[in-house]
Every structure is written in C-alpha cells, then in structure tokens.
Specification:
This protein has 166 residues and is of the alpha+beta class. It is 27% helix and 37% strand. The chain has an eight-stranded mixed beta sheet. The radius of gyration is 15 Å and the shape is globular.
C-alpha cells in the first residue's frame, strides 16, 4: 500500500499499486458504462504510475483517477505538437460522492501531469454529466468540441481542455 499524498477528511488520496487494480475495475464496473480490458488498467499504471490515483477510506478503495501521457497535436494551440495528459477515467462510488474526492483526485492528478512536463490536459465527459462538467470547470477546464455519438450508447461527449504550463 502506498503512503497518502493528501487527506480529505477521513479519506486518503494515494497512488495505486498493481494489487489494487481489481478494486479499480470493480469501481469502474459499478459506476460507469464504459469498461476496459484488464490489461488496459495495468498498462496505464505502468506508463504513468504517479497519475494513477486512489481515494481510500479505512483500507477500502472507494474511487480512482487514471491518466496517460500522450504526444500529438495540441487540443488548445492548433497544429503545434505537444506533450499532453489524457484523463482516461475518474470514478467514485455513489455512497462516497459529495465529499470532494473527485476534485481532490483531479487536483493531485494535475500536479503529477505538470511534474511530468505536460503542457495541457484533456478529457471526455458525457454531455449529460452536469456534476462532472461543473467540477471540471471549477478546476479550470473549458469545453472544447462536442464529440457526436462518442459513447457506445450513442451519447455525445464534450472534450474539455486545460492549459497546464505557459
């Protein structure tokens, strides 16, 4: 088990370990309609371990954030190439929401992205997910393009972006 990097009330925010991936998968399956293959989680942990974060209460994982580092065209500055972070997934079990865990996971994840030299961050969010959109806006993200029929069920997504370093 990793040491806490931050506390939110009785909750601890810390890095994930490979042994905890099954708990992350369970949370993903309970909270989100988008599911990934088991190796995908391990690849993200290996590729950006400091950006794969957990929220924990009394030894139980109750939320997570996983990210990856990408190189490609900027989502903010047109056709310039850049090192950017992609927020792949953030989830908190329903009974642990409204305690600031999503925001704390995001803030710590953004710190890790900056430390890795990313110039920007982006994510996709369902257009119907007003609470998440509000949280991302509070953290400085802006709505970019609308991605039509982005999700398997046909729902659109907003791509949201945030500049990390000038």
């Amino acid at each position: 088990m990793q040491e806490a990097i931050r506390h939110v009330g009785r909750y601890a925010i810390r890095r994930c370990t490979p042994e905890e991936i099954p708990q992350v998968i369970r949370i993903n399956e309970e909270t989100l309609p988008e599911h990934y293959s088991d190796p995908f989680y391990y690849d993200l942990l290996e590729g950006f371990p400091e950006g794969f974060l957990l929220a924990e209460l009394d030894g139980k994982v109750v939320g997570y954030m996983m990210n990856r580092i990408e190189f490609g065209f900027s989502n903010i500055r047109g056709f310039s190439l850049t090192k950017k972070a992609h927020v792949v997934s953030v989830a908190v079990l329903a009974e642990h929401r409204r305690h600031g865990l999503g925001e704390a996971l995001m803030e710590e994840g953004l710190k890790a992205m900056k430390a890795r030299g990313c110039s920007e961050c982006f994510l996709e969010v369902r257009v119907s997910n007003a609470p998440a959109i509000a949280m991302y806006r509070k953290l400085g993200f802006v709505v970019g393009q609308r991605l039509y029929a982005y999700y398997r069920d046909g729902e659109d997504a907003f791509m949201m972006t945030k500049e990390l370093q000038a």
